Each structure stands twice: as structure tokens, then as C-alpha cells.
Amino acid sequence: MNKKYILPISLILLVGLAVFVSANQNWFYSVGSNDYQLTVEVTEGWNLLQGFYPEFISAGSQVNAGNIKAVFMYSPDKNKYIEIYPENKLPTSGLSQNDEYYDDSAGLYSYWVYIENIQTCNDPACEVQGGKLNKLVYTIHLTDLDNIQMKKGWNFVGINPNLYKGEYNPNEGYEGEYFSWDAIKNDCSYEKIYFWNPETKEWTQISSDTQIKSYDFDDFLGNGMLVKVTNECTLKSPSASSGGTITTPPTIPN
Fold first, then answer.
1. Considering the domain boundaries, does residue 248 fall inside one?
2. What is the pLDDT of residues 105-132, one digit of tens each?
3. In a designed cystine with 110, which of 13, 145, 156, 199 is the match (CB 3.0 to 4.6 A)?
4. Is residue 6 part of a domain?
């Protein structure tokens, strides 16, 4: 049965922000030159994921392509969502093929991914009896942050390993810290930053650099953040400076 997707005519204000709490255990590791395998805990419904496409799903993922019902990207130039899966509407969207969002082969941006029918684990070997098999494992190719072009207005940015400084410890995971936005914003003047909480299905605004530092960002690897900038700009590399009917993805805050 074909499902219908209704693209928004305009973007409206989402009211009622909640405190952002994450119990996710997301992680990554290098599998080649600039290639990373991400493990992201997802929920039923809309998830904001970095550089994701169903073809990128890796062997051993608990969530498979059959669970993926839709993928949408947001175009700052067109100021609208564009469906890229199951039907790729980019060729008829009017978006230039030279646009960074048109072919995000570097996993720099983030996309809305609708997931359903996540299974419950009842096997005795399960880590959590009755827990959800909700780990999505996929591989992306990352380039330097210098390639993240920010358009005036809203931008869906991927939270990726290149935002870190530190080292990967096989026993403890990634040991390091995220650079502050002051360190990576380069010539970008940002107005607002939001995170999406897939559990409560709400946006949470991060209003200051101090507030950003207070979050445990490794929980959000593989996810995305929504950044509003006042001008076209480019982020710089921190290393260089020290079930049911699917309608539309969640609306963007005003």
C-alpha cells in the first residue's frame, strides 16, 4: 500500500519545549580513511540522524531497511522539506545539483528518518529482557568540518566525530570533549541552536555556548542539530584552531 507524504507549505512555530534528557548510548569507530561506523539508538517515529540513507546500514544493525519508512532533507534555499526516500524527489525539486544538500556524500548534514516496527527482544541472551532492538548501525564517509557550508537561516547539521578532540579508547570508548561553538563557528553568526528529543518528540533550544558544553555530546553522535545563522558561512575544523500514516517531519521552530 502506498503511503502519502504531505510536504509543508510553510514552517510554523513549535510551542512547548521540554528539558532535553538523553539516555542513548551512541558511539562510533573508524573503519577506514574518513569512514566511520555509527551506532545510534533510535525510537519509533521521527529521528534526526546524521548523513543517513538506508543503503548505508551495516551488517549487525538491529534496525534494518524494512524499518525505514521515509527520509526527508531540508533545503535552506527552498525553505522546505524534500523527500529522498522511498521516492527521491531531488531531481524534480528545482534544487541545484551543485548544492551541498543535494549530494551529501560526506555526512555533514542531518536528515529526518521515520522508523517503525522496532522489535522487542525476548531472547535469553538479550542485554535487557523485553528491551527494544533499536540500535541502528550504519557507515558514513566524513570530511573535514571546513566543508560544512551554512546557508542563511536554518541548517540541519550532523553531530559527527570531527567535532571532537581526544582519542578513542577501545575499553572506554571515545575519550575527549567537544569543541565549543566559539572554536568552530569561524565566520558564522548563529542565532539559535536546537536539538530534537526523539523520545518526547519535542525540540529543545540551547541558548548559550556554556549551555552547549554542559551536554554529554557523545550521547548524540549520529544525531543532528538545527542551527540558525544570520549569513552564509562555513564552519572550520577544530583541529585547525587548537506505525500509522506518515505525514511530515516535525516543524522547525520560529
1. no
2. 556 788 999 999 999 988 777 766 678 8
3. 156
4. no
Closest CA to 42 of 239, 230, 233, 224: 224
DSSP string of 117-161?
-PPBP-STT-SSTT-B--EEEEEEE---GGG-EE-SEEEEEE--G
Length of the chain: 254
Residue 151 and residue 202: Cα distance in Å, rounded? 24
In a domain, 247, yes or no: no
The parent domain of residue 43 ranges over 27-240
Tell me which residue of 60, 203, 188 sits closest to 136, measured CA to CA: 60
pLDDT, tens digit (0-9, with 9 covering 90-100), for 25-81: 676 767 777 788 888 999 999 999 988 989 999 999 999 999 999 999 998 888 899
Answer yes or no: are the C-beta atoms of 246 and 86 closer than 8 Å. no
Task: Look up cell 570530511; give the residue.
Answer: 143
Q: Map 59-104 to HEC letters.
A: CCCCCCHHHEEEEEEEECCCCEEEEEECCCCHHHCCCCCCCCCCCC
pLDDT tens-digit series, residues 162-197:
665 555 455 555 555 655 666 677 888 888 888 888
| pLDDT of the residue at 69 | 97
- In sign, the C-alpha dihedral spanning 96, 99, 101, 102 is positive
Asked, for residue 253, whether it belongs to a domain, the answer is no
Number of domains in the chain: 1
